[in-house]
Design brief:
Elements lengths: L9 E4 L8 E11 L2 E8 L5 E5 L3 E3 L4 H17 L6 H19 L3 H19 L2 H4 L2 H13 L2
Helix pairs in contact: 1-2, 1-5, 2-3, 3-5
Length: 149
């Protein structure tokens, strides 16, 4: 099955060396005229790897997967609580709940608004690149961009 993945698309390797690994497409690349693949930044390892197109499929996240990612963000906020005020921690927690509810109700506008607030606020208060590259944030964004019309 041939697909043209774009930069930023979420994919999962369903066979080959990286079977079961998911990540984000960085760019398309040909290793030779007969083999097309993609440079994919793998989530767990955080490294970029060349994966053949025939080994990839679009990562189709389900609502349960998104619940897990929201829980991961909540854990991060709790782990980093000493870096943020109690008020900001409470606000982020509440907005995560609003985002979760907006996603479940298929409200794209509300999901966009909540996601934007959460991602900007987390980047502001944590002030490091780990938030910019946070896999949970990327998965949530991918889900609402692809799933909510």
């Amino acid at each position: 099955m041939s697909e043209n993945y774009l930069q930023g698309n979420r994919v999962i390797a369903f066979q080959g060396k990286f079977q079961g690994k998911s990540g984000e497409v960085i760019r398309s690349e040909y290793s030779n005229p007969f083999q097309h693949g993609y440079i994919v930044k793998l989530d767990e390892e955080g490294i970029e790897e060349y994966i053949l197109e025939m080994d990839l499929q679009t990562e189709n996240l389900k609502p349960d997967d998104i619940d897990v990612e929201i829980t991961e963000l909540q854990k991060l906020i709790n782990q980093e609580a000493d870096k943020i005020s109690g008020k900001v921690k409470k606000e982020l927690t509440e907005h995560l709940l609003h985002l979760q509810n907006a996603l479940k109700s298929q409200d794209k506008l509300e999901s966009d608004s909540e996601y934007t607030y959460i991602s900007k606020e987390m980047k502001r208060v944590f002030q490091d690149k780990s938030i910019k590259e946070n896999v949970s944030l990327k998965k949530i964004k991918h889900y609402w961009e692809k799933s909510l019309k």
